[in-house]
Amino acid sequence: MLGEYRIEGRRASEIAASVERAIGAGELLPGEVLPPLRELAVYLEVNPNTVASAYRTLRDRGVIETAGRRGSRVRRRPATTSREALQVQVPPGVRDVSSGNPDPGLLPPLERALAEVAARYAKAPTLYGAPAVGVEIGELARAHFAADGVPEGPIAVTSGSLDAIERVLAAHLRPGDTVAVEDPGWGSLLDLIPALGLRVAPVGVDDEGPLVGQVSRALDEGARALVVTDRAQNPTGAALTERRATALRSLLAEYPDILLIEDDHGHAIVDLPLHPLAGVTRHWVLMRSTAKAYGPDLRLAVLTGDEVTVDRVGGRQRLGPGWVSHLLQDTVAHLWRRQVVRPEEVAASYGRRREALTAALGERGVAARGRSGMNVWVPVRDETGAVARLLHSGWAVAPGARFRVDSPPGIRVTVSGLSEEEIETVADAVASAIGPGEARRYD
Question: DSSP class of residue 369?
């Protein structure tokens, strides 16, 4: 039974723990088929319902997946294995262009905002019973969403985009449901979905956003939710065009019960217009985080959506953390109101570096993608080899495996830490690491 490994336990919790231990130790490999339910019950001398309960627990934790008569198998990337484990360890003397962090030089100073908020707090601290969303940030969020053509809806504040996505998925979906996501896409999201016991339906993405045909296929095959990055898509830099958004809205109109989640994390670091899909389906949200424009440590995102979804998010939030600190909300509102971040200047800075790198790579015969944001995606054939050779030459890039499900291999280069003078050096290193005859184009 499963080679050398023997599943153990008399109770469902013990059986599930035995399987998880084996996966963590590498004794059960991704994709490996588990014994049929009744066969394992006979082997362990337990009731089949006990094994069924154990398998259900493992599925809900995102450890295994079930496919009807084809049985249950270990997920290709179990929820217990974070994609962060695939990151490159950066030794001393190596330049890190893998992190995905914003340029600290483009982040706003916080002293004045924090001092003003602290002075206000000293006179009137936030106590239990206060509204979850501060008045000022709620008004500002509403006004900015409206200016970008996002349908009117209630406002919620969460501890970042991933927190918002988790709460929205949990508000509508149940373990076993399928979520259509961009591939390549945000690694943390690709970890979150199986951790919630949900299935991933990968959807290809080009510079204009998710491919309509692949979204259509995923919805036809039963996906109950779709997550779309509007701009500065991670890792490819894709941004929804008006043409693509129109086609996706037309498609989504045929699936009104689909949960639509839009992530506009790049709203203050890009100079491309927003083309929202929101409002086509009954349940939808559009969110914006502060991470890229104001700093990851502020841990805050604002979202709007249909009343049912936002109410469920707020209700569940009240039973957990209660609310996002008003100190943080008021700090962000201060920065927002004073317009301390100039999106056109930030976008231009990232754009110069991003475009210079893609152009330099093109001159060396290497295709790269990077329409918006702070990352450049380079398709390669030998991902592991390219990462290793670049590390040897003094550059740490992000391996594409952190962002992929079924899409071809690649590497991600974050330009936010690069000076414009370094672009040619990076391009030389990437071209040399990829080698002659490597990827020269992308589809």
Answer: B
Q: Which residues contact 276 (CB under 8 A, 6 or more apart)?
A: 148, 149, 150, 151, 230, 245, 262, 264, 286
In the block, tokens 């362990």 appear at 44
Percent of the chain with pLDDT over 90: 75
pLDDT tens digits, one per residue of 148-190: 999 999 999 999 999 999 999 999 998 889 999 999 999 999 9
Let me know: does 411 contact 370? Beta carbons within 8 Å: no
| pLDDT given for residue 87 in this prediction | 62
Name every residue whose Cβ is closer than 8 Å to that of residue 202 and which is 6 or more positions away in sequence.
180, 181, 182, 183, 185, 405, 406, 407
Supply 158's token pair.
């969460």
Distance CA 398, CA 403 (A): 9
C-alpha–C-alpha distance, residues 184 and 8, integer Å: 37
Beta carbons of 405 and 190 less than 8 angstroms apart: yes
Query: For residues 173 and 200, is the Cβ–Cβ distance under 8 A?
Result: no
256-to-259, 310, 321, 336 alpha-carbon distances in Å: 8, 17, 32, 34
What's the pLDDT tens digit per position in 387-416? 999 999 999 999 998 999 899 999 999 999
C-alpha dist (Å) from residue 197 to 60, 107, 227, 369? 4, 36, 16, 32
Q: Could you please report the per-residue DSSP string of 302-346?
A: EEEE-HHHHHHHHHHHHTTT-S--HHHHHHHHHHHHTT-S-HHHH
Confirm if 79 and 58 have CB atoms less than 8 A apart.
no
- Span 93-146, pLDDT tens digits: 899 999 999 999 999 999 999 999 999 999 999 999 999 999 999 999 999 999
> Is 334 exposed, middle or buried (CB count within 10 Å of its CB: 0-12, 13-18, 19+)?
buried
Tokens of 372: 């918006």
Q: pLDDT at residue 20 above 70?
A: yes
Q: Beta 259-263 vs 225-229: how paired, if at all?
A: parallel
| Count of Cβ atoms closer than 10 Å to residue 110 Cβ | 17
Structural element, H or E, at residue 140: helix 135-147
308, HSE (Cβ side, Cα atoms, 13 Å): 10
CB 212 within 8 A of CB 202: no
CB 102 within 8 A of CB 269: yes
pLDDT at residue 443 is higher than 50: no
User: What is the distance between the alpha carbons of residues 265 and 352, in angstroms, rounded to a whole number?
Assistant: 20
Please, what is the average pLDDT of the chain?
91
